């Protein structure tokens, strides 16, 4: 079986743009889940669980799994020494996160899940990002731009925070929120067409 389009279980503009980049036709469908880690849950288990849960939630919203298109979901987190850095609740938390990441190398983990028919396939990419040293005033100025809100680790690699990044080891698209190598492999295995013209 082959598919001309998918459902993206996300309201993320950057994930939509990344799918468009590789010519995958899609419709976005936001999911609303509790994104708090479970007690004792590590970063890799956390993002993989959320990606699966988002895919299943989108399937349920589409009619309990009765959909003629595969559903793709993803989740991204930033981790430093095993600690999960999610989306900042406000300026104080944003500054604390950025100051902790400053001058250090951290991990960015993005898990993807693709539900096609009765199959649910998953993949995980772990990339590493090194920040230069940051100062508190610069972090506050960055928060004032509005960019860190809603971003794992309180930064967007494709935006203003690019000036913080000394080095990336791994996948740039993973750090953006959708690792395209792994995504394409899952889509290919499910028979989803890519390199299409996307309006």
Give a short overview.
The chain has 199 residues and is α/β, with parallel strands linked by helices.
Text of the CATH class: Alpha Beta
Point out poorly predicted stretches.
Answer: none
Oligomer: single chain
**Count of discrete structural domains:** 1
How large a portion of the residues is in β-strands, by DSSP E?
25-35%
Straight-line N-to-C gap: 24 Å
Helix content bin:
25-40%
Q: Which fold name corresponds to the CATH topology?
A: Maf protein
What average pLDDT do the residues reach? 95
Number of helices: 6
- What sequence of helices (H) and strands (E) makes up the elements? EHEHEEHEEHEHH
Rough outline? globular
Computed structural class: alpha/beta
């Amino acid at each position: 079986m082959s598919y001309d389009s998918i459902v993206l279980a996300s309201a993320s503009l950057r994930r939509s743009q990344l799918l468009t980049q590789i010519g995958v036709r899609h419709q976005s469908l936001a999911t609303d889940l509790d994104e708090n880690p479970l007690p004792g849950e590590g970063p890799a288990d956390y993002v993989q669980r959320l990606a699966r849960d988002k895919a299943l939630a989108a399937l349920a919203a589409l009619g309990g799994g009765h959909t003629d298109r595969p559903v793709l979901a993803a989740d991204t987190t930033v981790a430093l020494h095993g600690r999960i850095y999610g989306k900042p609740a406000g300026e104080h938390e944003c500054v604390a996160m950025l100051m902790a990441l400053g001058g250090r190398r951290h991990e960015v983990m993005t898990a993807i899940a693709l539900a096609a028919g009765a199959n649910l396939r998953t993949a995980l990419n772990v990339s590493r990002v090194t920040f230069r040293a940051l100062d508190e005033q610069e972090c506050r100025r960055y928060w004032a731009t509005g960019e860190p809100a809603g971003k794992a680790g309180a930064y967007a690699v494709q935006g203003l925070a690019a000036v913080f990044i000394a080095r990336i080891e791994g996948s740039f698209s993973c750090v953006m929120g959708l690792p395209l190598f792994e995504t394409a492999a899952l889509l290919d295995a499910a028979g989803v067409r890519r390199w299409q013209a996307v309006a």
